Structures are given as C-alpha cells and as structure tokens.
Amino acid sequence: MTDKTSSIYLSKRILLGVGVLVVISVLFLAYYFYKQNKRAKLILQDPGQIAKEEIASLVSKVEKLMILPTGETPTFATVTDWEKLKDEIFFKNAKKGDKVLIYTKAKKAILYRPSTNKIMEVSEIADEQSTQGAKP
C-alpha cells in the first residue's frame, strides 16, 4: 500500500467510527426521551404515582437498615426548613432533604438521611389519648 491509499483507508475508518458513534448516540437519546415521555403520560393519568414510587423506594432503602412495621404503608415528608423544626427533639439532627417516614398504626416515626443512607432518629408517636391524660 502506498501512503496515499493508507491515509484514505484510515480516513474512511475514522469516518465510519464517527458515524457509528453518532448513530449510537442518537439511538440512546431517542430511547431516553421515549422513556421520559412514557413516564410523563403515566404521571398525567395517575398523579399519585410519583409519591407511590418514592415511598416504595424509601421503604426499600430503610428496611435494609432496620426492621420496619408491617401491614401499613407509611406516609412521608421531606425536611425543607430545618430552622422551623430545630426546637423539636426528634429533628435535632435533621438536615434539609432528610425524609420522615410515619407509620400511624405502629405509632413510629423514622428520620432518614438519603445522602448518607443512615437513620438519624426513630421515635414513638404519641396518640391524642395518652397526651390528653398526661396534661395537668
């Protein structure tokens, strides 16, 4: 092979490689946007779906760290303003973004920090009858 034919051959290989990368990138983006569109349609049909998915995700992460109450689906909240909660003992170690799982039947609250995958606090929830009896 001469230098000219080998450089043409090399140029064609580079061009083919770039073309393959472009096609793979386009296919990946098409699949990504297809999945996003499908998820958006599902959310429009059932707006509570995101909350259900987030609760299921939180429960699966927390149940790897401790035994959770059974027989009920917890409600959850996200800590957004720690300053408002700083006087509460349960929230003394809370930070923005922490999640609180609340099991009303089991009377349990769990403060979970997703960023470190740690349980920060667990507390019993007092019901109205026991707090009314404790008041002077």
Strand content bin: 15-25%
* Gross morphology: elongated
Structural class: alpha+beta
Count up the domains.
2
Radius of gyration over all CA atoms, rounded: 27 Å
Contiguous uncertain segments of 5+ residues: 130-136
Helicity, in percent?
40-55%
Helices, by number, come to 4
- Profile the largest sheet: 4 strands, antiparallel
Give the strand tally: 4
Strand order of the largest sheet: 1-2-3-4
Element string (H = helix, E = strand): HHEHEEEH
Distance between the termini: 101 Å
Query: Mean pLDDT, as a whole number?
Result: 86
Task: Summarize the structure in words.
A 4-stranded antiparallel beta sheet has the order 1-2-3-4, covered by helices on one side. The protein has helices spanning 3-45, 49-62, 82-85, 128-134; strands spanning 75-78, 99-103, 108-113, 118-124. It is built from 4 helices and 4 strands, in the order ααβαβββα. Mean pLDDT is 86; it is low at 130-136. With 136 residues, it is α+β, with helices and mostly antiparallel strands. Helices cover 50% and strands 16% of the residues. The protein has 2 domains: 1-45; 49-134, no CATH class.
